[in-house]
């Protein structure tokens, strides 16, 4: 049962974490600083 | 008959839309990249529509039906992160370069017409194979619906996407893709919801599937790994498959020509970013329905053959007529939208990247548009002939073609943005080596039955071959100064994209996508985990 629950969390969590990271990068990159 | 009528009416609608939009095409920039004026709705629509094809509604849904529904969602979770990561690492730089095709980007980045030609050839071969797979899938559906022979069905399918694509180019593909996006999203969600409803609702369906004797373990995370319907030898093998293919497809949505080229049409960088977020949410959400619904078809008939026709069978035998017509129209829309995008990309590359490299024909601006259209039509006819001759294998050919780009383009594209150390020869050798390695090795797997150990999957070997090719090609050569200058010109965010209101709107899209991710967890918990765990506990 634990494996099914891990899957359920993994399905949404992985894209969620990447989306949050992307959010942070966009917020920083488009604030006027030059990108590296 | 009503199914056939519904599909034929949708063909006519796409044709009329294509002709209307095509009349506004005036020059190559209109034809290739829709004048770089596309809003978020259209770029999102074409991103998802180019990604989802008959491979999804027939091949992948058939795979879920055959016994690996949940496993397929593990693959999708990794796959979708290619959208936000891809637009950040490649898509936005590609858009800033203002090229007409992705191979042209490689040519400019490494200051090499030869590389542009090489990339163009890979587009024609790789996407050509994918186009054949998608057209086969569509023809399979039409043959089944109309009861006509394969050749006639193929002609109908071919004409329905070639006519508007050849005439209207990217604008027609963009608008029709978006219409088709809505059609297949609604079809997938409504069609699958209906099937689950007919099975007694999510809880009852999951409970019955958990104890399905024909396909034991269909709802476990690894799918069916025992008995005659086993798809993998063990859970570990299944997991490695899902994660490896997930990374491959994440790379594909990040750099493949049929995905990244959509950003070239965006009217601003924020449109590109927002579209990537919309695509992430849409794919994540839709596949819950496609996979769990696909598995549920087993409760009505667990022996549909080929499994690729499971959804079509359900549309005709489980759903009421109006839902069935919608479902079939959706399947056809998913296939047509990809076929149109693929044909346009092949035509663009042949005319702009390959022919321009060998002759002066495309340099003549007066005839360039006519030339592009003619090349696309010729290639369309070639694709028609090859589809007629090729053996039907929708999922196998589709995945085969897709992996070619992940391995041969992925490292060159990403390293080309983040490093100045790759030389022109390194990029050319790397791209060719990776392409040939996967073409041969994956070809042996798919068409000659050769098996490799999990740690030496052709995709992994292909990535290694590309990196090795870059390394060997780099020896004894300095990176091109013009290539480096081009790269540096892409690094600054355009001033017009720093407006706070634009940034705020883009961040709202990110927030909404995060909400979809959370909703996906809650939804799976309620419709899958709770009933599944209760059934297993009751059985134990």
Describe what this molecule looks like in 3D.
The complex is a heterodimer of chains A (36) and B (540). Chain A is an all-alpha fold. Helices cover 78% and strands 0% of the residues of chain A. Chain A contains one helix and no strands. The model of chain A has no long low-confidence stretch (mean pLDDT 86). In chain B, helix 3 (40-51) packs across helix 14 and helix 8 crosses helix 15 (365-389). Chain B is built from 20 helices and no strands. The mean pLDDT of chain B is 88. The longest helix of chain B has 49 residues, at 150-198. With 540 residues, chain B is mainly alpha-helical. Chain B has helices spanning 2-22, 28-33, 40-51, 54-80, 82-97, 102-109, 113-146, 150-198, 202-210, 235-255, 257-260, 269-296, 310-317, 321-358, 365-389, 394-418, 424-448, 458-474, 481-489, 500-539. Chain B is 78% helix and 0% strand. The interface between A and B is large, with 31 and 43 residues.
Q: How would a textbook summarize the main sheet of chain A? A: none
Which segments of chain A are poorly predicted (pLDDT under 50) over 5 or more consecutive residues? none
Q: What is the alpha-carbon Rg of chain B in Å?
A: 23 Å
Strand content of chain A: under 5%
Number of strands of chain A: 0
Distance between the termini of chain B: 48 Å
Topology, please?
The complex is a heterodimer of chains A (36) and B (540).
Chain A: H1 2-29
Chain B: H1 2-22, H2 28-33, H3 40-51, H4 54-80, H5 82-97, H6 102-109, H7 113-146, H8 150-198, H9 202-210, H10 235-255, H11 257-260, H12 269-296, H13 310-317, H14 321-358, H15 365-389, H16 394-418, H17 424-448, H18 458-474, H19 481-489, H20 500-539
Tag the structure with descriptive keywords.
heterodimer; A: 36 residues; mainly alpha; 1 helix; 0% strand; B: 540 residues; 20 helices; 78% helix
Summarize the structure.
The complex is a heterodimer of chains A (36) and B (540). With 36 residues, chain A is an all-alpha fold.
């Amino acid at each position: 049962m634990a494996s099914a629950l891990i899957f359920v969390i993994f399905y949404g969590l992985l894209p969620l974490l990447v989306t949050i990271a992307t959010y942070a990068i966009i917020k920083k990159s488009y604030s006027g600083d030059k990108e590296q | 008959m009503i199914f056939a009528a519904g599909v034929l009416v949708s063909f006519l609608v796409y044709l009329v839309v294509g002709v209307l939009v095509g009349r506004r095409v005036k020059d190559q920039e209109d034809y290739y990249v829709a004048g770089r004026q596309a809003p978020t709705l259209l770029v999102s629509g074409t991103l998802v529509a180019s990604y989802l094809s008959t491979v999804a509604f027939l091949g992948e849904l058939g795979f879920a039906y055959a016994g690996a529904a949940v496993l397929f969602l593990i693959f999708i979770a990794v796959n979708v992160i290619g959208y936000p990561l891809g637009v950040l690492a490649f898509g936005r730089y590609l858009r800033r370069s203002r090229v007409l095709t992705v191979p042209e980007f490689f040519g400019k980045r490494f200051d090499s017409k030869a590389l542009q030609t090489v990339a163009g050839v890979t587009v024609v071969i790789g996407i050509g194979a994918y186009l054949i797979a998608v057209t086969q899938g569509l023809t399979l559906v039409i043959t089944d619906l109309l009861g006509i022979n394969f050749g006639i069905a193929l002609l109908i399918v071919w004409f329905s996407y070639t006519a508007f694509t050849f005439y209207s180019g990217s604008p027609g593909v963009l608008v029709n893709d978006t219409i088709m996006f809505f059609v297949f999203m609604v079809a997938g969600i409504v069609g699958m919801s209906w099937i689950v409803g007919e099975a007694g609702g999510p809880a009852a369906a999951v409970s019955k599937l958990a104890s399905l004797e024909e396909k034991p373990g269909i709802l476990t995370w690894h799918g069916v790994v025992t008995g005659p319907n086993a798809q993998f030898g063990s859970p570990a093998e299944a997991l490695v498959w899902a994660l490896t293919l997930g990374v491959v497809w994440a790379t594909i949505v990040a750099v493949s020509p049929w995905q990244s080229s959509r950003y070239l049409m965006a009217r601003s960088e924020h449109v590109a970013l927002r579209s990537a977020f919309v695509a992430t949410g849409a794919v994540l959400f839709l596949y819950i329905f496609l996979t769990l619904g696909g598995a549920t078809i087993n409760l009505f008939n667990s022996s549909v053959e080929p499994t690729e026709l499971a959804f079509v069978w359900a549309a005709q035998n489980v759903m009421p007529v109006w839902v069935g017509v919608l479902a079939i129209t959706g399947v056809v829309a998913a296939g047509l939208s990809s076929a149109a995008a693929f044909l346009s990309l092949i035509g663009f590359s042949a005319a702009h990247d390959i022919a321009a490299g060998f002759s002066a024909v495309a340099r003549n601006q007066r005839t360039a548009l006519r030339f592009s259209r003619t090349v696309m039509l010729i290639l369309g006819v070639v694709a028609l002939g090859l589809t007629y001759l090729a053996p039907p294998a929708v999922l196998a050919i589709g995945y085969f073609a897709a992996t070619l780009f992940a391995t041969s383009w992925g490292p060159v594209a990403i390293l080309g943005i983040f490093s100045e150390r790759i030389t022109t020869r390194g990029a050319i050798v790397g791209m060719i080596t990776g392409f040939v390695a996967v073409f041969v090795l994956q070809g042996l797997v798919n068409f000659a039955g050769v098996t490799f150990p999990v740690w030496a999957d052709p995709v992994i070997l292909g990535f290694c071959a590309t990196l090795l090719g870059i390394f060997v090609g780099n020896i004894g050569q300095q990176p091109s100064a013009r290539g480096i200058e081009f790269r540096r010109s892409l690094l600054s965010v355009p001033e017009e994209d720093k407006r706070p209101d634009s940034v705020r709107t883009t961040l709202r899209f990110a927030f909404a996508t995060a909400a979809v991710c959370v909703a996906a967890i809650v939804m799976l918990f309620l419709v899958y985990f709770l009933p599944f765990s209760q059934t297993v506990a009751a059985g134990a």
